[in-house]
Amino acid sequence: MPYAPCPMPNTQSMTNEIQSIFNRIAPVYDQLNDWLSLGQHRIWKEMAVKWSAAKSGDTALDLCCGSGDLALRLARRTGATGKVYGVDFSPNLLEKAKERSHWQYPQPAIAWIEADVLNLPFDDNQFDAATMGYGLRNVKDIPRSLQELYRVLKPGAKAAILDFHRPSNPQLRAFQQLYLDSFVVPVASYLGLKEEYAYISPSLDRFPIGREQIKLARQVGFAVATHYTIVNGMMGVLVLSKLGVIS
């Protein structure tokens, strides 16, 4: 979800509003992602899937799955003997994901689940690998979402969380803001989605940077947490490992 709006809600009414926003952008979601990232989002997502270490036969999880890009990539890695669960709170985006999966051959083993990442409907220690693409900025309680992720991962499992960031370099920050103001918002405005995509900039200002994400992950139990910056620090992948003995 490379350019998804994310107002960082802190009340239930705002949570409902962001859910409504994602439902509204669902019809043009994939097209906008291609335009606004110049097609590069595919590369970034493939990097996240690789860092999740998902392999053939695994049971994998994709949180904030949107229209299904990462989940479909995970399914190609887990293969015919594996299983992927794509979770999102937008029913409209989940419908887009289901439509996309129907065109795949062979049919991927993916279950599309409408759920809140702060209260996942899964047992403890259920998943071998997990991804989240452009979703962590959207949750109203980042520590809680990381705690839920930790709970459902098996000991020894890895997760990779991909998202945008504010780069530390002042010139790159200025370039990023110019890109948002001069390209992203105008393109969204052309499609009648100016209000939805204008939230990106303030969401980036509030989003924890790499070392802060590492600290939050360790606080909920992840023994190994590494943040990799990509695209000159305008994006990053948080790679997490849940240590322990796999039963």
Radius of gyration: 17 Å
State the share of residues found in helices, binned by percent.
Answer: 40-55%
As laid out across the biggest beta sheet, the strand order is 3-2-1-4-5-7-6
CATH topology: Rossmann fold
> What characteristic shape results from the CA principal axes?
globular
CATH superfamily: Vaccinia Virus protein VP39
CATH architecture: 3-Layer(aba) Sandwich
Question: What proportion strand?
Answer: 15-25%
Structural class: alpha/beta
What sequence of helices (H) and strands (E) makes up the elements? Answer: HHHEHEHEEHEHHHHEE
Provide the low-confidence segments as ranges: 1-11
Question: What is the level 1 CATH name?
Answer: Alpha Beta
**Tally of individual domains:** 1
Could you describe the largest sheet, including whether it forms a barrel? 7 strands, mixed
**Average of per-residue pLDDT values:** 85
